[in-house]
Amino acid sequence: MRRPSPHLPVLLAALLATPGGAWAQQVPGPATRPVQSSLPDLGSSANATLSRAEEYQVGRLMMRDLRSQNALLDDAETADYLQNLGSRLSVEAIKGEQRMTFFAVRDRSINAFALPGGFIGVHTGLMLTTNSEAELAGVLAHEIGHVAQRHIARAVQAQGRIGLATLAGMLGAVLVGAATGNADALPGIIAIGQGTAMQQQINFTRMEEHEADRVGIGYLASAGFDPNGMAAFFQTMMRQRGLGGSDIPSLLLTHPVDTVRLAEARSRISAMPAMPRRPDSESYPYIRERLRVLTTTNLGDLRRYYEKEREKQPENGALAYGAALVELQTGKPRVALSLLSPLSEQAPQMPLLHAALAQAQLDAGLQEDGIATFEHGLTLSPRNVPLTVRYAEALLKLDQSKKAHQILLDLFNNVPPTPEQIRLIALVASAAGDTGDAYSYMAELHLANGDLMLASTQLDLALASPGITEVQRKRFVARQDEIRDYLREERGGRRSRDSSGDGKDSPRKPPEGGPRVSTIR
Q: 386: closest CA among 428, 419, 356?
């Protein structure tokens, strides 16, 4: 398996620094309205160059490239946890202006980054390095600050309007090259990283980092987290740098931390009024142990690790959960059951324990018990995304695809699915013999990835499927019309913008993928 380069944000920064070629740098102008600490509002000027809709399209294309390189961690529990945590922080920052998407990158290096369009990635190594949920929230809040301040749109402001396809292509080339580890794909980008242009970008990036710190600390406190979490993680980074010698944590390459920045953060925190702070959520330590298991390269060593740690902390449920996952991974479901059964009884409010227990029961041949555990868990936590996804996967293995299709439809008509979850419902629908729906879900998958032409093709196949009902036909046609209308409008709008050159005719947001209420027959 190839891993994404931990230096991806540096390569993106180098691309942004290209003078006269890709994006030229410009220090932003004076503030137009106060945001947190009188920071500039980039809305109008940034939109003149790169609208939010265009940023979102570029971000979706970059996410598709990351997904194609198997760089994302496809784990329902981790994805749900990160999205919930990030949403708590971003609700005040974005105020409904755009959707924020938080995801885990399958990489044990210490890194995090923001992509265009509100996509924020966190490396699994960073999550394992944090010592508290407030530290992890501090990293997310900082990256949300980059998005809220529209730093990427600011970077293209001086150059004027750039074609969306060209922009996506340039960023995509960097992304694919970094994800594949192919140094030959990046000779021009490496050259860009030399001389004055790179120095200007580093300076600009440092300014952005201070901005993101200022707004991020505010988001952190508003969400009820201890704002000292951000400063604590700064200290962790500096300690890692001091202990690591030349092996500098990846995060420091694009998020330079020094004593001045740390002192500024502490000063802002000390000036904040005292407020009650939430403790770490119950899920945080469990997700950390889950990631430890999912990203390990030696389950035998990890089993010994849990044996030693559980001797020191016999009441630590997260350690018992991690140990149980190791047993599941190594084909010992009965041992996992002995660990998970008491945990599930002690913490019935935690869906991830019900999911793990049910999976252990099914692996041990206890089919009725496993199904009962899933259903009991969903009674306690209706429409919990990871638990429902795990239940659907189990039903698919048990040749109960019709039921799996039904529960996934109910879930995704109420909760936006990830592309991986759209792929699952397409697979389930196909197994259930619902061919038209399967094609329509694949169309939604392509929409989620930003590929409208492929989505349109899948809807053609859905309409050509034998046995579709009149309700299905109308639904597929309506979705097809929505896509084609958008494409016609976008082509016309692009010609208008190209001819005027003022960038004022910004496109509307493209259709998003995911089963909706209208998909229920």
A: 356
The enclosing H or E element of 113 equals strand 112-115
Query: What six digits make up the tokens of 194?
Result: 């030399």
Give the long-range contacts of residues 404-413, CB within 8 A, separation 24 or more. Answer: 404/428, 404/431, 404/432, 405/429, 405/432, 405/434, 405/437, 408/515, 409/515, 409/519, 409/520, 410/383, 411/383, 411/385, 412/514, 412/515, 412/516, 413/515, 413/516, 413/517, 413/519, 413/520
- pTM of the predicted structure, to 2 decimals: 0.80
Three-state SS at 391: helix
Please count the other Cβ atoms lying within 10 Å of the Cβ belonging to residue 366: 17
Q: Which residues contact 17 (CB under 8 A, 6 or more apart)?
A: 23, 25, 192, 193, 197, 198, 200, 201
CA distance 30 to 216: 21
- Rounded to an integer, what distance in angstroms lies between the CA atom of residue 15 and that of residue 438? 39
Structure letter (DSSP) for residue 35 = -
> Strands 119-123, 101-105: parallel, antiparallel or unpaired by DSSP?
parallel
Question: Per-residue pLDDT tens for 236-292?
Answer: 877 776 654 445 555 555 555 567 777 777 877 877 877 778 788 999 999 999 999
Rounded CA gap, 364 and 391, in Å?
Answer: 16
373 vs 356: CA distance, rounded Å: 10
The residue among 145, 154, 162, 201 whose CA lies nearest residue 14 is: 201
Give the separation between CA 228 and CA 181, rounded to whole angstroms.
36
* 3-state DSSP assignment of residue 102: strand
In one-letter notation, the amino acid at residue 350 is: M
Q: What is the pLDDT of residues 230-246, one digit of tens each?
A: 888 878 877 776 654 44
Strand order in the sheet with 119-123: 101-105, 119-123, 112-115
Query: DSSP readout, 498-515?
Result: HHH-S--SPPPPPPPPS-
Tokens describing residue 296: 């390990």
Instruction: Give the end-to-end CA distance of the chain in Å, rounded to a whole number.
Output: 40
Q: pLDDT tens across 282-328, in order?
A: 999 999 999 999 999 999 999 999 999 999 999 999 999 999 999 99
Distance, in Å, from the CA atom of 141 to the CA atom of 133, rounded to the nearest integer, reads: 12
Dihedral Cα 404, 410, 413, 418, nearest 10 deg: -40
What SS3 class is residue 219? helix
